[in-house]
Protein backbone atom coordinates (compact mmCIF):
# COMPACT_ATOMS: atom_id res chain seq x y z
CA UNK A 1 0.00 0.00 0.00
CA UNK A 2 1.46 3.35 -0.98
CA UNK A 3 2.21 5.77 1.82
CA UNK A 4 1.20 9.39 2.22
CA UNK A 5 2.55 11.52 -0.59
CA UNK A 6 3.11 15.25 -0.57
CA UNK A 7 3.93 17.58 -3.43
CA UNK A 8 6.04 19.48 -3.98
CA UNK A 9 8.85 18.32 -1.69
CA UNK A 10 10.70 21.63 -1.80
CA UNK A 11 9.49 25.12 -2.54
CA UNK A 12 11.05 28.56 -2.53
CA UNK A 13 8.74 31.56 -2.53
CA UNK A 14 9.01 35.30 -2.01
CA UNK A 15 7.32 37.31 0.70
CA UNK A 16 3.80 38.31 -0.30
CA UNK A 17 3.27 35.39 -2.65
CA UNK A 18 0.88 32.54 -2.04
CA UNK A 19 1.48 28.81 -2.10
CA UNK A 20 -0.59 25.64 -2.41
CA UNK A 21 0.62 22.33 -1.01
CA UNK A 22 -0.91 18.97 -1.83
CA UNK A 23 -1.33 15.76 0.14
CA UNK A 24 -2.58 12.36 -0.99
CA UNK A 25 -3.44 10.10 1.96
CA UNK A 26 -3.03 6.36 2.18
CA UNK A 27 -5.75 4.63 0.16
CA UNK A 28 -8.85 4.18 2.33
CA UNK A 29 -7.85 6.83 4.86
CA UNK A 30 -10.46 9.55 5.22
CA UNK A 31 -8.81 11.86 7.74
CA UNK A 32 -6.03 14.27 6.84
CA UNK A 33 -4.22 16.58 9.25
CA UNK A 34 -1.70 19.31 8.49
CA UNK A 35 1.19 20.42 10.71
CA UNK A 36 3.89 23.04 10.62
CA UNK A 37 7.26 21.98 12.01
CA UNK A 38 10.04 24.41 12.86
CA UNK A 39 13.24 23.77 14.84
CA UNK A 40 12.57 24.10 18.56
CA UNK A 41 8.80 24.53 18.12
CA UNK A 42 7.84 20.98 17.43
CA UNK A 43 4.73 20.12 15.48
CA UNK A 44 2.13 22.85 15.39
CA UNK A 45 -1.35 21.69 14.39
CA UNK A 46 -2.91 23.56 11.48
CA UNK A 47 -6.15 21.73 10.72
CA UNK A 48 -7.81 18.36 10.32
CA UNK A 49 -10.21 17.29 7.61
CA UNK A 50 -12.53 14.29 7.60
CA UNK A 51 -14.91 13.50 4.75
CA UNK A 52 -14.38 16.95 3.20
CA UNK A 53 -15.25 18.75 6.46
CA UNK A 54 -12.84 20.62 8.69
CA UNK A 55 -13.05 18.98 12.11
CA UNK A 56 -10.43 20.93 14.00
CA UNK A 57 -8.39 24.04 13.48
CA UNK A 58 -5.23 25.19 15.22
CA UNK A 59 -4.23 28.70 16.22
CA UNK A 60 -2.96 29.98 12.91
CA UNK A 61 -4.02 33.18 11.13
CA UNK A 62 -6.62 33.14 8.40
CA UNK A 63 -3.84 33.26 5.78
CA UNK A 64 -3.64 29.50 6.29
CA UNK A 65 -6.51 27.57 4.77
CA UNK A 66 -7.20 24.09 3.53
CA UNK A 67 -9.69 21.83 1.92
CA UNK A 68 -10.32 18.17 1.28
CA UNK A 69 -11.71 16.63 -1.87
CA UNK A 70 -14.11 13.73 -2.27
CA UNK A 71 -11.20 11.36 -2.92
CA UNK A 72 -9.71 12.42 0.46
CA UNK A 73 -6.82 14.29 -1.15
CA UNK A 74 -6.17 17.55 0.62
CA UNK A 75 -4.60 20.89 -0.16
CA UNK A 76 -3.45 23.69 2.08
CA UNK A 77 -2.96 27.25 0.97
CA UNK A 78 -0.93 30.02 2.52
CA UNK A 79 -1.55 33.51 1.21
CA UNK A 80 0.60 36.61 1.63
CA UNK A 81 3.65 34.63 2.69
CA UNK A 82 5.84 35.92 5.51
CA UNK A 83 9.44 35.01 6.34
CA UNK A 84 8.19 33.22 9.47
CA UNK A 85 6.21 30.79 7.33
CA UNK A 86 9.43 29.05 6.35
CA UNK A 87 9.03 25.56 7.77
CA UNK A 88 8.46 21.91 7.04
CA UNK A 89 4.78 21.28 6.38
CA UNK A 90 3.71 17.76 7.20
CA UNK A 91 0.54 16.01 6.23
CA UNK A 92 -0.72 12.96 8.12
CA UNK A 93 -3.55 10.58 7.33
CA UNK A 94 -5.52 8.11 9.42
CA UNK A 95 -8.37 5.71 8.71
CA UNK A 96 -10.87 7.72 10.77
CA UNK A 97 -11.03 10.85 12.83
CA UNK A 98 -10.04 11.02 16.49
CA UNK A 99 -10.08 8.12 18.91
CA UNK A 100 -7.27 5.62 18.84
CA UNK A 101 -6.12 6.03 15.27
CA UNK A 102 -2.44 6.74 14.88
CA UNK A 103 -1.38 9.06 12.11
CA UNK A 104 0.80 8.19 9.16
CA UNK A 105 2.97 11.05 8.01
CA UNK A 106 4.09 12.05 4.57
CA UNK A 107 7.67 13.18 3.85
CA UNK A 108 6.70 16.84 4.09
CA UNK A 109 7.08 19.95 1.96
CA UNK A 110 10.03 22.16 2.87
CA UNK A 111 8.91 25.77 2.26
CA UNK A 112 11.46 28.56 2.23
CA UNK A 113 10.23 32.15 2.08
CA UNK A 114 12.79 34.77 1.03
CA UNK B 1 -3.44 26.59 28.01
CA UNK B 2 -2.40 23.16 26.89
CA UNK B 3 1.19 22.10 27.43
CA UNK B 4 3.41 19.09 26.89
CA UNK B 5 6.92 19.03 28.33
CA UNK B 6 9.80 16.80 27.29
CA UNK B 7 13.54 17.17 27.80
CA UNK B 8 15.16 18.87 24.83
CA UNK B 9 18.07 16.49 24.47
CA UNK B 10 19.40 13.30 26.04
CA UNK B 11 22.57 11.27 25.53
CA UNK B 12 22.96 7.54 26.11
CA UNK B 13 25.42 4.76 25.34
CA UNK B 14 24.92 1.98 22.83
CA UNK B 15 23.56 -1.12 24.57
CA UNK B 16 22.22 0.82 27.54
CA UNK B 17 18.68 1.77 28.61
CA UNK B 18 17.18 5.27 28.40
CA UNK B 19 13.91 6.71 29.69
CA UNK B 20 12.36 9.75 28.01
CA UNK B 21 9.77 11.52 30.14
CA UNK B 22 6.71 13.46 29.04
CA UNK B 23 4.39 15.48 31.26
CA UNK B 24 1.19 17.01 29.99
CA UNK B 25 -1.55 19.44 30.90
CA UNK B 26 -4.39 19.27 28.42
CA UNK B 27 -8.10 19.93 28.18
CA UNK B 28 -9.24 16.37 28.57
CA UNK B 29 -7.40 13.20 27.65
CA UNK B 30 -8.12 10.71 24.91
CA UNK B 31 -4.84 8.89 24.59
CA UNK B 32 -1.11 9.51 24.38
CA UNK B 33 1.16 8.70 21.45
CA UNK B 34 4.90 8.38 21.01
CA UNK B 35 6.50 8.94 17.62
CA UNK B 36 10.07 8.62 16.39
CA UNK B 37 11.51 11.09 13.90
CA UNK B 38 14.90 10.66 12.29
CA UNK B 39 16.57 13.80 11.02
CA UNK B 40 15.10 14.88 7.70
CA UNK B 41 12.36 12.26 7.81
CA UNK B 42 8.69 12.13 8.77
CA UNK B 43 7.58 10.98 12.22
CA UNK B 44 6.66 7.30 12.57
CA UNK B 45 4.31 5.81 15.14
CA UNK B 46 5.84 3.95 18.09
CA UNK B 47 3.19 3.44 20.76
CA UNK B 48 -0.22 4.38 22.11
CA UNK B 49 -1.45 4.48 25.73
CA UNK B 50 -4.95 5.30 26.89
CA UNK B 51 -5.10 3.32 30.15
CA UNK B 52 -2.64 3.51 33.04
CA UNK B 53 0.20 1.08 32.91
CA UNK B 54 2.98 -0.22 30.74
CA UNK B 55 2.72 -1.17 27.07
CA UNK B 56 5.64 -3.23 25.81
CA UNK B 57 6.61 -3.58 22.18
CA UNK B 58 9.95 -5.24 21.63
CA UNK B 59 12.81 -3.02 22.81
CA UNK B 60 10.41 -0.12 23.36
CA UNK B 61 7.94 0.29 26.23
CA UNK B 62 5.65 3.16 27.10
CA UNK B 63 4.11 3.94 30.48
CA UNK B 64 1.17 6.16 31.38
CA UNK B 65 -0.16 7.63 34.62
CA UNK B 66 -3.25 9.71 33.88
CA UNK B 67 -3.59 10.95 37.47
CA UNK B 68 -0.06 12.40 37.30
CA UNK B 69 -0.28 13.61 33.70
CA UNK B 70 2.89 11.65 33.02
CA UNK B 71 4.27 9.20 30.51
CA UNK B 72 7.65 7.80 29.66
CA UNK B 73 9.17 5.95 26.75
CA UNK B 74 11.72 3.31 27.69
CA UNK B 75 14.25 2.17 25.12
CA UNK B 76 16.32 -0.91 25.91
CA UNK B 77 19.46 -2.34 24.29
CA UNK B 78 20.09 0.93 22.54
CA UNK B 79 21.36 0.82 18.98
CA UNK B 80 22.98 3.58 16.95
CA UNK B 81 19.91 3.67 14.73
CA UNK B 82 17.84 4.79 17.73
CA UNK B 83 19.46 8.21 17.43
CA UNK B 84 16.42 10.34 16.59
CA UNK B 85 13.91 12.74 18.05
CA UNK B 86 11.08 11.27 20.12
CA UNK B 87 7.78 13.10 20.10
CA UNK B 88 5.06 12.83 22.73
CA UNK B 89 1.51 13.77 21.70
CA UNK B 90 -1.79 13.83 23.61
CA UNK B 91 -5.34 13.77 22.22
CA UNK B 92 -7.43 16.34 24.05
CA UNK B 93 -11.18 16.42 24.64
CA UNK B 94 -11.74 17.58 21.04
CA UNK B 95 -9.62 14.66 19.78
CA UNK B 96 -7.04 17.15 18.62
CA UNK B 97 -3.42 16.02 18.94
CA UNK B 98 -1.23 18.31 21.07
CA UNK B 99 2.47 17.75 20.47
CA UNK B 100 5.55 18.19 22.60
CA UNK B 101 8.63 19.81 21.07
CA UNK B 102 10.40 16.45 21.02
CA UNK B 103 13.45 14.97 22.70
CA UNK B 104 16.60 14.55 20.63
CA UNK B 105 18.30 11.32 21.66
CA UNK B 106 22.00 10.98 20.91
CA UNK B 107 23.51 7.50 21.11
CA UNK B 108 27.27 7.21 21.64
CA UNK B 109 29.28 4.07 20.95
Note down, in words, how this protein is organized:
The complex is a heterodimer of chains A (114) and B (109). Chain A has strands spanning 5-7, 10-13, 19-24, 31-38, 42-50, 53-57, 64-68, 74-78, 87-94, 104-105, 109-113. Chain A has 114 residues and is mainly β. In chain A, a hairpin with a 2-residue loop joins β5 (42-50) and β6 (53-57). Chain B is an all-beta fold. Helix content of chain B is 0%, strand content 57%. Chain B is built from no helices and 11 strands. Chain B has strands at residues 3-5, 9-13, 18-25, 32-37, 44-49, 53-57, 60-65, 70-75, 84-91, 97-99, 103-108. Chain B is globular. The mean pLDDT of chain B is 95. Chain A binds chain B through residues 4, 33, 35, 40-45, 48, 55-56, 58, 90, 97-100, 102-108, and chain B through 30-31, 33, 41-45, 48, 50, 87, 89, 91, 94-102.
In short:
Chain A is mostly beta strands and 114 residues long. Chain A has no helices and 11 strands.
How do the strands and helices of this protein lay out in sequence?
The complex is a heterodimer of chains A (114) and B (109).
Chain A: E1 5-7, E2 10-13, E3 19-24, E4 31-38, E5 42-50, E6 53-57, E7 64-68, E8 74-78, E9 87-94, E10 104-105, E11 109-113
Parallel strand pairs in A: 2-11
Antiparallel strand pairs in A: 1-3, 3-8, 4-5, 4-9, 5-6, 7-8, 9-10, 9-11
Chain B: E1 3-5, E2 9-13, E3 18-25, E4 32-37, E5 44-49, E6 53-57, E7 60-65, E8 70-75, E9 84-91, E10 97-99, E11 103-108
Parallel strand pairs in B: 2-11
Antiparallel strand pairs in B: 1-3, 3-8, 4-5, 4-9, 6-7, 7-8, 9-10, 9-11
